Every structure is written in structure tokens, then in C-alpha cells.
Amino acid sequence: MIATDEFWNRIARKYAANPIKDIAGYNRTIERTRSYLSGGDHVLEVGCGSGSTALLLATDVARITASDISSEMIAIGQEKAAAQGTSNVDFVCATPFDDAFPEAPYDAVLAFNFLHLTPDVTATLRRLAQLLRPGGLLISKTANIGGLRRFALQPLIGVMQLFGKAPSGLSFFTPKQLETMMRNSGFEIVASEFHGDSRPFIVARKK
Ligand SMILES: C[S@@+](CC[C@H](N)C(=O)[O-])C[C@H]1O[C@@H](n2cnc3c(N)ncnc32)[C@H](O)[C@@H]1O
């Protein structure tokens, strides 16, 4: 199995070039995310990929730190920020556990298509809570690969991992299990909804 950063570095350019599959669902997620952000907010995005979402939301907030484990994703994000003249997004190559966030605590943390990629989701959620101010929001959208889907997907993903076609360290949980993990990690659920597919969009407030 290959390391997580190596996997994402290898596919970064292709991932960034792929069009969004469900643009209506994505737009709804952006619209709902915007409704929870304010102009003065300092925001952290974890697993930002090539930075499209951070660059889209940059005009809605004061500053965004867009972080990702993949240096190649971060390089693409920096190229896009320079091309569009955005200066309030700081791209950082880091995992949430790295000592790379001197601006913490943040008003909001964004985690889109990310939490299922972490091997210990509760530890990740607790770390994200540490990076938020009390009352700060975790705004997330997460692949739904738990429950019955897990039985179909896990063997397939296992084979793909062996051939370097899927990232390692995936976690399998349902939307309800994710909400429970959030509650157990110091959050209360503010909103839980679906935007066109099975991935839950969950907004959780740090108590
Ligand atoms: C599926 S992509 C999602 C990118 C973007 N958030 C989006 O919604 O398009 C997952 C991203 O998480 C990053 N990632 C995976 N594991 C990570 C970790 N432990 N810490 C930080 N980033 C990670 C990958 O490099 C990749 O860019």
C-alpha cells in the first residue's frame, strides 16, 4: 500500500482537472456553507485538495487557511490563487495534526470529502474541535460508505488499495454514526442534510 500523500500527489493533476459530477449539489453545498460564514471569519479548510472551494469562498470571509497533506494539491491551489488574484487564502501542506496552524482557534473548519479518509475519525474530530473557538463551526460533507454499502465496497476498495488505486486508511461509517462521533467529540449538530446524493452535509458547533 502506498502512503497517503504519495497517492494524492500522484493523482492531483487529474483530480483537479475532473469536472464536478453533480454541480447542482455542489452549488447547494456552497450556498449552505456561505449561510454559516461571516465576513470577519478566519476559516481553516482541511483536505482542501486543489483549493477550488476555498478560492470560491474567499470573498465571503476574512481569511482562509487551506490545508492538505498533498504538496501537489497545494501547488495547484497556489497556481489557481495566483491566476485569479486571490490573496486571502493561505495554502499549507499539512494534516490537521501538524503544528502548522498558528492562527488557531478558527471561527470555522471546513472538511469536504475528507473525514472518511482519516483512519481514526474520532481523533480527527477531537483535533478539529481543538482548532476551533468555542461556538465555532465544523462544516462537513462526507462520503457515505458505511452500513450496507460497506459490505459491497470494502472488499473492492481493499483490492484497489493493493494496486495503489485507492488511498489507504479509509473509515467506513454511516451519516448517523458520523453524527454520534461528532457529539462524542465535543460538538452539537446544527444541521444534517443531503444535497443531491448520499453524502451527508453536517454542520456541527463546538460546545
Ligand atoms: C477527496 S479529496 C477532497 C478535496 C476537496 N476537499 C474536495 O472536496 O474536492 C481529499 C483530499 O484530502 C487530502 N487528504 C487525505 N488525507 C489527508 C490527511 N490525513 N490530512 C490532510 N489532507 C488529507 C488529499 O490529499 C485530498 O486532496
Strand order of the largest sheet: 3-2-1-4-5-7-6
| Cofactors, ions, other ligands | S-adenosylmethionine
Query: How does the helix and strand content classify structurally?
Result: alpha/beta
Text of the CATH class:
Alpha Beta
Supply Rg.
16 Å
CATH homologous superfamily descriptor: Vaccinia Virus protein VP39
The CATH topology turns out to be Rossmann fold
Question: What order do the SSEs take from the amino end to the carboxyl end, as H and E?
Answer: HHEHEHEEHEHHEE
- Give the strand tally: 7
Low-confidence stretches: none
Characterize the structure shown.
With 207 residues, this protein is of the alpha/beta class. Helix 1 packs parallel to helix 4. It has a single domain, classed as Vaccinia Virus protein VP39 (Rossmann fold, 3-Layer(aba) Sandwich), CATH 3.40.50.150. Strands 3-2-1-4-5-7-6 form a 7-stranded mixed beta sheet, sandwiched between helices. Strand 1, helix 3 and strand 2 form a beta-alpha-beta unit. The structure holds S-adenosylmethionine. The site of S-adenosylmethionine has 16 residues, from helix 1. S-adenosylmethionine binds next to helix 1.
Topology:
Elements: H1 4-17, H2 23-34, E1 42-46, H3 52-57, E2 63-68, H4 71-84, E3 89-93, E4 106-112, H5 121-131, E5 132-141, H6 148-162, H7 175-183, E6 187-194, E7 200-206
Parallel strand pairs: 1-2, 1-4, 2-3, 4-5
Antiparallel strand pairs: 5-7, 6-7
Please provide a brief summary of the model.
The chain has 207 residues and is α/β, with parallel strands linked by helices. It has helices at residues 4-17, 23-34, 52-57, 71-84, 121-131, 148-162, 175-183; strands spanning 42-46, 63-68, 89-93, 106-112, 132-141, 187-194, 200-206. It contains seven helices and seven strands.
